[in-house]
Design goal:
This protein has six helices and nine strands; from the N terminus they run αααββαββαβββββα. By secondary structure, it is of the alpha+beta class. The termini are far apart.
Length: 289
Amino acid sequence: MSRRPSHPVRLMASALAAGALLTTAACSDEGGGSGAASDTAAQARAAEQNAAKQTPSGSPTNSPTGSPSASPSTLTESGAKAALLTEADLEGEWNQVRDADKWRDRLLVGEVDVSDFLTAKTDAADCQRLLDGLYRDNLLGEPSGPSALTGFEQGDSRLLEQVAAYDRAGLDDSLKWMDSLPQKCDQFTATDEAGEKRTVQVTEASVPEVGDAREGLHVTVQGTAADNPATLTLDVVAVRVGTSALTVTGGGLDGDEAASVEQAVRQGTDRLKTVLDGGTPSPQPTNLD
């Protein structure tokens, strides 16, 4: 009694038959492309597909092994809080505080002097919006979704971070507006309710290449504090990641905190991206310089 061919042998025979049919089809095409040749070619393709379906288990296939990476998810309330910086993310003697949402610097309060501007109404309004946004911690406008805020102190300097979800179009408009301020508000005067004048200067700040879009400003306000001459120095950076953004503002009467702001921006962007990708930021960052 003859033995039935094993499964691999049957597969090889099927493959050889498919090859023979393909050869026949090619020869028929050269002879004039008759309807019979077309039928033979179709049969060959069917045989080839049938052989492919019978590939033994464990053989490589053309099926995709993974799906494309998902786009950043929507920021949640818990995600916004998890994305906030911690003391471990900052070098130096920065101490986290509980009442950062109550911080307000009186040197930022004042009415912009319209006479300082060539295009008075437009530019003066933009500079007023800058001062008000720095004072109220809403430079990018009001969030359209979840938000969270934290702050740190080091001597007379402060560092404030806000993470929030925004309307995408409004967020892009706010970043473009920030980009225009060094030209529109390079130097102007603001006067407080007591008649005290402050000189404000705005220049572009260095921003690390992080996130999907970013803008930075360096702002100084010269006035008085406790009846003594004082200069408030602030660096503020906003970074967009998807439809979410983080804003970091650092500085104070002690002077420039640009290095700490840059570090906070890098760490904060990493944390926000991790959260939006569905992960949990590490409690001990490993990429500090």
